[in-house]
Amino acid sequence: MTDQYIVSSSPHIRSNESVDRIMRHVVIALLPATVFGIYHFGIRAFIITLICIAACVGAESLYQFLTKRTVTIGDFSAVVTGLLLALNLPHTVPYWLPIVGGVVAIIIVKQLFGGLGQNFMNPALGARAFLLISFTGLMTRWEVDGISAATPLGMIKDGVTDLPSVANTFFGFIGGCIGETSVVALVLGGIYLIAKKIINWRIPVFYIGTVVILSILLGGRGLDMTYVGYQVFGGGLMIGAFYMATDYASSPITRTGQVIMGLGCGILTSVIRIYGGYPEGVSFAILIMNLFVPLIDRFTIPRVFGEVAKNEK
Amino acid sequence: MGALTFKRGIHPSHSKDFTEKKPIKIYTPKGDLVFPMQQHIGAPCKPLVKKGDTVLLGQKIGEAQGFVSSPIHSSISGTVKAIQDVLHPNGSKVQAIVIENDGQYTEIDTMIGRDDYKQLSKEELLEIIKEAGIVGMGGATFPTFIKLSPPPDKKIDYIMVNGAECEPYLTSDHRIMLEETDRVVKGLQIILHMFPGAKGVIGIEDNKRDAIAAMEQAVEGIDNISIASLKTKYPQGAEKQLIYSITKREVPTGGLPADVGCIVQNIDTVVAIHRAVLRGRPLMRRIVTVSGGAIKEPQNFKVRIGTSYRELIEAAGGFTEEPSKVISGGPMMGLALFSIDVPVIKGSSSILCLTKDETKVMNERNCIRCGKCVSICPMNLLPADLNKYAIHNEDDLFVQYKGMNCIECGACSYICPSKRHLTHSIRTTKRTIMAKKKK
Q: A181: closest CA among A144, A135, A137?
């Protein structure tokens, strides 16, 4: 036998899908929100964004180098985490804060649990929650053009009545984290992700839908559409629903599970916002649901094709 | 009416343009012909000849052993040169009869056709099919007479001919439907004669418009045969998916097509039935697509079983470049060969010689749980989880997550962005669990 060809198991052809391609699409989807954030909040937002990305990529390569693993920064997942973290920070934070955030996100939430795909919670969100609890003051200082500007949800919580218009809230001309204010930009990116089949519609649609319904039922203002508008457009719901709750590693893999994830996030968000101490519940809602994902997946194993009664015809 | 289909699945590039317009070329073998005694699922055959014997074309040289087995016939006349172990396209070594071709093609006088097949009983027809050594020619090589003998309590109302040919590169079924149209119809009519209450359906993917048109014309005026246009989607030709597409019936887990009143036959198999009944000829030839980027002049050949792969590759102009992989069968489910010195057997649907670019070997990366495998699995399984349980040898979880239902179509591995060997690990674990069960 002279010839020796490669022998491996079928299939012998593979699609062009790749992790890099998926992550690149996520970066593209986040660009409108990033650009708007920089436009709205100014150069500081840009610098914070760069620091976040650098911190995440740096932390990942350093950790993998030190632990003698393959350095995987080329897959863009650290870039995505950095970008998401930046979009979840106010632009007023001191420059060391994003570095702390990036290190926490990559090393503690992602790498210590086994790296890409093994993290049980979204790294950016985990880091955000950590920063929010540890540096509450720094993390909730909202400013627009140097003037302090609370988020509409915060104002509602404090009983302030002089709220920005719902339209401004929709387009994003309000206080908030760098990337969370513009509903338009975030939804645009979300639709892009769904169209490119990077995420599916279940989690965002059930999440946002649940918040809409519960705001009406539990908000105490009935069918006050302005109030509902603030609830839906005002906080981190859009960025959470499209980009954080859909995180592959920390969301269910089954279709039914994804519906449950959306519902659960929606219920928790509304409950925290309406009954809790924080004005904003998205981060904690998603993080709590992340913990249930293995359980949800286990109880939602789909019906296999052919699982029918034998005598059925 | 839109094309019929099943749920989920993938759309790999067809790569059929190499050969889909190439008429079937008859290939005359040059060297010795090799007949492995294992050309079907089931027990290997026992040689009926010995070294030095003269054999005639059509002569039975291998006797079926046991129930699930099928006899083997010589496709040439000549002298038995040796009975020895040879390399089989599946990678194993099996006993084979090597026959030196005398170039005369002297036929045995027992090949008698029956024009009056309608006078024959079902049992007589089954006996002809059994003795002709006909097996499923799509690649699975299950003896056809068994498939055509469903348990008596199952009422069969559909005889399906599988012309989906959903594997990329493969065009042999396509060419048969264009060039041997009437034989397909006749073959199906013979089967329908055995199942008088059943309807015949020929399912064809809609990327073969010309085949659909040709077959539709051929069945015009025949009440009990129709053509089903199927959406081009992989694995449309998988038995369970094909049945669902056409009837919306689900073959129950662990069950057979007969449980939902269906029998599915491959196109070439139906032609073989036609030849066996009307012309008295056992299964001695088949259509083989020789294709892939490393082949100079890709072709569809009509080949005598026993012909060497090497000869066929040479007949297709040889290599343009050294192939990276040679596959017997389609790229999704076929077997990779390490040598081309193997004979064509009854299940050899194609020989693919793929270049490095066509069959990139990529490193596995971490599963990112993107769920793409879940969204395309035609069996509605969770390949990512099954892969995890397979790697960790968690057989109980593997079974609990219904891993035994995998049809090994390869779609999950194809789509996986992390290039994980999902199908491979699941297949291996299935085998291990089945072997343990037998103990």
A: A144
Give the closest of B252, B354, B378 to A12, CB-based: B354
Judging contacts by C-beta atoms under 8 Å, the chain B residues touching residue A72 are 365
Tens of pLDDT, residues A193-221: 999 999 999 999 999 999 999 999 988 88
Count of all residues that appear for chain B in the document: 439
**Distance between CA atoms of residues B164 and B174, nearest Å:** 9
Check if the beta carbon of residue A279 is closer than 8 Å to that of residue A154: yes
Q: What is the pLDDT of residue A103?
A: 96
**pLDDT band for position A255 (50/70/90)?**
very high
> A85 near A125, Cβ under 8 Å?
no
Query: Could you give the CA distance from residue A231 to residue A218 in angstroms, rounded to a whole number?
Result: 12
Give the start-end residues of each E strand in B338-400.
350-354
ipTM metric: 0.89
Task: List C-alpha distances in Å: A244 to A73, A306, B272.
Answer: 20, 35, 58
- The pLDDT confidence band at residue A309, using thresholds 50, 70 and 90, is low
For residues B290 and B141, the answer to whether their CB atoms sit within 8 Å is no
Range list of β-strands (E), B338-419: 350-354
| Rounded-to-integer distance, Cα A110 and Cα A124, Å | 9
Interface of A with B in 107-166 (CB under 8 A): 114-118
In chain A, which residue's Cα lies nearest the Cα of B339? Answer: A3
Give the model's pLDDT for residue A310: 52
Integer distance in angstroms from the first to the last C-alpha of chain A?
52
Note the pTM of the prediction, 2 decimals. Answer: 0.91
Give the CA distances from residue B290 to residues B15, B25, B304, B319, B345, in Å, rounded to whole numbers and listed in that order: 12, 11, 14, 11, 14
User: Across the strands, what pairs with B161?
Assistant: B202, B265
* DSSP label of A106: I
Side-chain-side CA neighbours of residue B133 (13 Å): 30
Q: Which amino acid is at B92?
A: S
